[in-house]
Amino acid sequence: YHKQLTKETQLSKFNQTEIEAMLGSYTKVLFIRDPFQRLIATFLQGMGSSPSFSSFVQDVLDSGTHNASVAWKPLVSLCRPCLIPYDYVVMFGFHRQELGHLLQKAGLPVESILPEFTDTQVQWTYRWLSEQMFSELSVQQKKQLSHFYHWDLAAFSFSSSFLSD
């Protein structure tokens, strides 16, 4: 796009014509992650001050979607998948396969660019962590989290998410 963009420029700062021109001139890639896994990662990184995962989840639920941190805010409110026609959606845990396809489509040499991913190990680890953390939550918290991330679960195929159950 012909305008100079700074790192801080948000799409909402442009008028509709400029937005359409920009979106039409870029390849749009969206990286997504299961919302429950995002919560676990945020908790493990110490971004909440809660002593337990259950109390952290309660803090998240109490904050609501409008006051939520970007770390756990529902994806649909951050990246607007219904408004922006993304060309590629890359799901966490499938980086090697999906990024390889994306690089190939872009005409770039796949094997020489991609780092070594351990997607299978990551999937197994997060499955185990999800089971452990999910068991700490009350039935009410589980229901509230499913509601909190309802639109993410509807917009993206997180079929193995604990929140989908």
Automatic annotation (TrEMBL):
<protein>
    <recommendedName>
        <fullName>Carbohydrate sulfotransferase</fullName>
        <ecNumber>2.8.2.-</ecNumber>
    </recommendedName>
</protein>
<dbReference type="GO" id="GO:0016051">
    <property type="term" value="P:carbohydrate biosynthetic process"/>
</dbReference>
<dbReference type="Pfam" id="PF03567">
    <property type="entry name" value="Sulfotransfer_2"/>
</dbReference>
<keyword id="KW-0472">Membrane</keyword>
<keyword id="KW-0119">Carbohydrate metabolism</keyword>
<keyword id="KW-0808">Transferase</keyword>
<dbReference type="InterPro" id="IPR005331">
    <property type="entry name" value="Sulfotransferase"/>
</dbReference>
<keyword id="KW-0333">Golgi apparatus</keyword>
<dbReference type="GO" id="GO:0000139">
    <property type="term" value="C:Golgi membrane"/>
</dbReference>
<comment type="similarity">
    <text>Belongs to the sulfotransferase 2 family.</text>
</comment>
<keyword id="KW-1133">Transmembrane helix</keyword>
<dbReference type="GO" id="GO:0050655">
    <property type="term" value="P:dermatan sulfate proteoglycan metabolic process"/>
</dbReference>
<dbReference type="InterPro" id="IPR018011">
    <property type="entry name" value="Carb_sulfotrans_8-10"/>
</dbReference>
<keyword id="KW-0325">Glycoprotein</keyword>
<keyword id="KW-0812">Transmembrane</keyword>
<dbReference type="GO" id="GO:0008146">
    <property type="term" value="F:sulfotransferase activity"/>
</dbReference>
<keyword id="KW-0735">Signal-anchor</keyword>
